[in-house]
Structure formats: C-alpha cells, structure tokens
C-alpha cells in the first residue's frame, strides 16, 4: 500500500512482512537506478541465490565486474548484424508453426486451439537452432531428452515465497528439483562438449550463439553450461509475448508470398511492415514478460539527489510504468497500435512518449535485456507468418485474459483462438 506521495519519482510503501520499500515512478529516478548508477543496485540475494540453483552463474545471475565481463563476451552474439543473419531461422520455424497448426485444425471440428502450447514449442525450437545450433523439433513431437527435462525444470523455477530459498522447499519437491536440474546441466554439458569437438574437427562456423561463445575462448565448460541454461530459460519463459500479440489480430496482414520468396530479404521486409510492428510494440508495452523487477542498494548511494542507504530495496515496475497516463496519456491502458506510427506512416521508436524510460519492457542500461533484438526479430517473424496464414478471433469474445506468474507474466488460462486458414 502506498505510504506517501511520490517525491522526485520515489514512492515509499510497505511490502512483504511490512518491509519498507521504494517504488521508482519517474524517468529521472529510473535513469539513475538503471543507467547512471546501475552497479550500485543488485538483484536481491534471496532471489539470486534461489535462481542460481537452476541457472548457475550465467549473465542473468552475475553482478559487478563479472557481469561486465560476461556481457562484453556475449554481446557480439546479439549484435544487429548477427540478428539479421538469424532471420531465416526465425522465418523457417514460423512457417513450420503454421503447418503444424493447420494439421491440428483438421482434428478440431470447432477450429479452436489454445495457441499457448504451440507458441511455447516454437520458441523452444528457435532458441534451439539460433541459440544452440541444435534442432530440437518439439513442434514435430520429437521427445528430445533436453526438452523433456527442461519442461520439468521451468515448472519448478518460481519460488512460492519471495524470501524462500532452495533448501526450504518441501523435501519431495526439493529432491525433484535437484534431479531435474542435475539432468539438465549434464545434458547441456555433454552438448557443449560435443559442439566444441565438432568445431575443432570440422572447422564448423556456426552462426548460433553457442558457436560464437565457443569461438571467443572466454568461457569454461561450466560457464558455457550456465549460459545455455539462461538462454533456454529466456526462450521458454517469454512465449506470452507471442500469444498476446496474436490475439490482437483479426485480419491477415503481411504479404506471405513475398516473404516466401527465397530471393527476398526477409529481415528488411519484416522490419519495414508498419502495422505488424506497431502491434508488436504495443503488446510489448502493455504485456511485459517481466512485470516487476527488484533491486537492492549494494552501497550507500543516491537517486535523484536523495540519499539511499545500503540495503534499501527498490522496485522497477514495467507493468505500471508502461501504462502510466503521465507518460502515455489518457489512453495509456488502451491497446492503440497507431501510437507507434508517425504521420508519414512509418513506425516510431518511442510510441509518442517523451522519454525512453516510459518503456521498460527490456529495461535500460548495462543490465537491460541483452536479447532484445533477438526477441523482437523472433516476434516479428512468428506474428507475420501466423497472421499471413490464418484469420483468427478469440473463441470467446467475452473472455478476459488473466495474466499470472511471479517471475514472468503469461496468461493463466492460456488463449483459445478460433482459426481459419487463409485460402
């Protein structure tokens, strides 16, 4: 509950067990915490220690100098140029998704499907090929041992209480977590070792993220496993962006014939389509995968000139900031893709907002989402392919989609769409 009015973007409130906390509610305050003094603030140790049991010491979990080092080594894999080279992978898997859904529709008399299941599988397949150089083929019902273990892994990754540690889980659940996590780390270790061997013997020049990291010679075997776990988590746990976008389309949009032309530059076309890109941007604004992120002051510091003592817990809330009427206007809660299209009909980068800090879906600064370009490209391809193949509407027009989840946000009950293939 709010305790007092905001003061230069800092709002005091009481959180779990009545603990004092600060909510960041202005662009200036967000800029201080995320950019100007980003390494003065770290993920709280209780959440970091819990997630480390699953994700190891990959980029998502590290802080300070180690985070700077890892980010520098991984950054080339997410460069603008490299993401452009991955578009054919995104597009091929997007077409595969459409074919699988078409086959499934033949078995559904009412032509209604929960698209969440398919979105999860295709995002896993994409991270497999583009991230690991491995054809997981989950869309084609391939019972890949990595995916079978990972399904159990991600289902247990969220702590039931924010301060609860791994060892405090009920004994049976704790044992299942250890077994599943151990299996997954072993599988990733074997895969990384095999990948290294193939690259040495065959002079393999893979474009996947893992190949780039191996060629850098900056990661130990254990370090590669930690990064693999992080990439798999990112691929599996953000599929809600896709299904949230699809339900916003009721008509076909891009020219699939042009996109299917092998001589056409898929990346250029996908990035140039104003309305589909505007819809994707608006969905990213209204439905951030990480609705809230906590930071703990690791030293005495300041925010907007206000003294912040070491140990102070602060909250960055993309869900609230992205919908703040002071930043987005009176229609901030409404789905308005047109806010992302300027007078010339081209997509804008800020959606009409005055500050970059009005949009926090990928955060900002040195701790922002390193995979933003990857996620946007993947989303463009999947949405463009799907809305080019199907007419769609909600199976129940009155149904309210309920977001849920503690770490990432996704629809609690899935999203059921009535689909009709385009003739």
UniProtKB/TrEMBL annotation:
**Which residues take part in binding heme?**
369
Q: Which Pfam families match?
A: p450
Q: Does the keyword Mitochondrion apply?
A: no
Identify the Gene3D superfamilies for this entry.
Cytochrome P450
According to the lineage, what is the superkingdom?
Eukaryota
Q: Which GO terms describe its molecular function?
A: heme binding; iron ion binding; monooxygenase activity; oxidoreductase activity, acting on paired donors, with incorporation or reduction of molecular oxygen
* InterPro entries xref list: Cyt_P450 (IPR001128), Cyt_P450_E_grp-I (IPR002401), Cyt_P450_sf (IPR036396), Cytochrome_P450_monoxygenase (IPR050121)
> What keywords appear on the UniProt entry?
Heme, Iron, Metal-binding
Q: Does the keyword Oxidoreductase apply?
A: no
Query: Which cofactors does it use?
Result: heme
Tell me which family the UniProt entry assigns to this protein. Answer: Belongs to the cytochrome P450 family.
The protein depicted here goes by the name Cytochrome p450
């Amino acid at each position: 509950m709010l305790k007092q009015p905001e003061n230069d973007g800092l709002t005091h409130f009481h959180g779990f067990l009545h603990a004092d906390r600060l909510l960041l509610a202005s662009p200036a305050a967000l800029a201080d915490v995320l950019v100007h003094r980003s390494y003065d603030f770290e993920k709280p140790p209780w959440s970091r220690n819990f997630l480390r049991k699953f994700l190891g010491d990959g980029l998502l979990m590290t802080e300070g100098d180690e985070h700077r080092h890892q980010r520098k080594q991984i950054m080339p894999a997410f460069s603008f140029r490299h993401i452009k080279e991955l578009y054919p992978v995104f597009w091929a898997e997007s077409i595969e998704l459409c074919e699988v859904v078409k086959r499934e529709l033949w078995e559904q008399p009412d032509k209604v499907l929960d698209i969440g299941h398919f979105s999860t599988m295709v995002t896993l397949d994409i991270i497999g090929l583009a991230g690991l150089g491995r054809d997981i083929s989950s869309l084609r019902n391939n019972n890949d041992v990595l995916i079978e273990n990972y399904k159990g892994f991600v289902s247990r990754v969220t702590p039931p209480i924010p301060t609860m540690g791994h060892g405090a889980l009920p004994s049976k659940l704790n044992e299942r977590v250890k077994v599943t996590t151990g299996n997954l780390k072993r599988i990733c270790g074997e895969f990384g070792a095999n990948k290294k061997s193939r690259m040495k013997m065959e002079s393999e020049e893979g474009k996947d993220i893992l190949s780039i990291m191996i060629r850098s010679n900056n990661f130990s075997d254990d370090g590669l496993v930690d990064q693999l776990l992080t990439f798999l988590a990112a691929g599996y746990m953000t599929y809600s962006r896709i299904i949230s976008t699809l339900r916003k389309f009721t008509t076909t949009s891009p020219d699939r014939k042009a996109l299917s032309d092998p001589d056409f530059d898929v990346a250029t076309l996908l990035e140039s389509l104003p309305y589909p890109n505007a819809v994707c941007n608006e969905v990213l604004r209204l439905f951030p995968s990480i609705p809230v992120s906590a930071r703990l002051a690791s030293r005495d510091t300041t925010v907007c000139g206000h003294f912040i003592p070491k140990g102070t817990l602060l909250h960055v809330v993309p869900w609230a900031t992205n919908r703040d009427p002071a930043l987005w206007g009176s229609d901030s809660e409404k789905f308005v893709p047109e806010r992302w299209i300027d007078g010339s009909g081209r997509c804008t980068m800020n959606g009409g907002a005055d500050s970059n800090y009005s949009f926090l879906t990928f955060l900002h600064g040195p701790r922002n989402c390193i995979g933003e370009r990857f996620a946007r490209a993947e989303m463009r391809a999947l949405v463009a392919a799907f809305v080019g193949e199907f007419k769609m509407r909600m199976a129940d027009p009155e149904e309210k989609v309920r977001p849920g989840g503690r770490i990432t946000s996704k629809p609690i009950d899935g999203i059921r769409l009535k689909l009709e293939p385009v003739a």
